[in-house]
Amino acid sequence: MKKLIALLTLTGLLFAQMPNAVLAQDATDAGTEMAADGDMVADGEMEADSTVSDSAAAAPVAAPEPASTVEEEPEREVLSFHQTVKRYFIEGGATFMAFVLICLILGLALSIERIIYLNMATTNTDKLVSKIDAALKSGGENAAKEVCRNTRGPVATIFYQGLDRSSGSYEEVAKAIEDYGSVEMSKLERGLSWISLFIALAPMLGFMGTVIGMISAFDKIAEANTINASIVAGGIKVALITTVSGLIVAIILQIFYNYILSKIDSIVLDMEEASMDLVDLLYKRKLQGK
C-alpha cells in the first residue's frame, strides 16, 4: 500500500513537473531559433553590404553632369531714328544716296519758301472789299489806292490796278484786272516746276541705284562661279535701300506739292471772286455818276 501511495505521489510530481520542462524546452528552442535567425540575417546583411560595396567599387564613378547652359542671345543695340537713317545712308552707297538727299533738301527748301509766300499772300477779300468801298465813299479813288498799297497780297495788287483804270470803260477795267490776275497767278506758281522735277528725279535716281546694285550682285556671282546668298546679299541690299530712299523723298515732296497746289487754287478763287466784286463796285459808282 505504501508502495502504491509512493508510486502515485511520484507520478503526480512527474506530471506536475512536465509542463514546466516542456515550456522551458520550448523557450530554449525558440531562443536557439531566434539566435540562428539573427545570425542568418546578420550574415545576409553582411553579404549584401559586401555585395553593394563590391558593386560600388566596381562601378566607375560617373562624372557629374554639367549644368545645362542656355546660350544667351546677344543684346541687340537699339538705334535711334537718326542713327538708323545714317546707317542706311552709308550702306546704300554715298554716291546715289547723296543725289537723293540733294533732291530732298532742295525740294523741301522750295516747298517751304512757297508755303511761306502763299500764307503771306492770303488775304481776307471780303474785309478788303469793305475797306475799299468805305474808302471810295469817304476819300475817293486815292484813298482806295492807299488801302491797296497798305495791304499785302496779290488781291490788293489787282485791286490797285483796277482802281488805277477805273476812269475807263467796264471792259477796260475787267481786262486790266484779268491781265494782272494772270501775272499774280504766275508769281504764285513760281518754283513749282522745280519741285515737280525733284519729285520725278528722286525715284529715278533710286531705280538707277537699284540697277547698279543688281549688276554688282551678278558680277560677284560670276566671279565666284556659284550662287550664294551671302555673295549677292550686299548688292541687293544696296539696290533696295536706294529704291526705298528715292520713293520716300518723292512721297514727301509730293505731299508738299499737292498742298501748295491746293493753296494756290484757294487764292486764285478768292482773286476771281474779289475781282468781280471790285468791277461791280466800280460800275455801280460810275452809274451813280461818282
Helix-strand makeup class: mainly alpha
Note poorly predicted spans.
1-8, 10-27, 30-63, 65-70
Strand content: under 5%
DSSP summary, beta strand count: 0
Helical run tally: 8
Gap from first CA to last CA: 194 Å
Q: Which range best describes the helical content: under 10%, 10-25%, 25-40%, 40-55%, 55-70% or over 70%?
A: over 70%
Order of helices and strands: HHHHHHHH
Report the mean per-residue pLDDT as an integer: 73
Shape category: rod-shaped
Largest sheet at a glance? none
Radius of gyration: 57 Å
Structure report:
Helix 5 packs antiparallel against helix 6. The protein contains eight helices and no strands. It has 290 residues and is mainly alpha-helical.
In short:
With 290 residues, this protein is an all-alpha fold.
Name some characteristics of this structure.
290 residues, rod-shaped, mainly alpha
Please render the helix and strand layout as text.
Layout: H1 2-58, H2 81-91, H3 94-121, H4 125-149, H5 154-164, H6 170-188, H7 192-224, H8 229-287
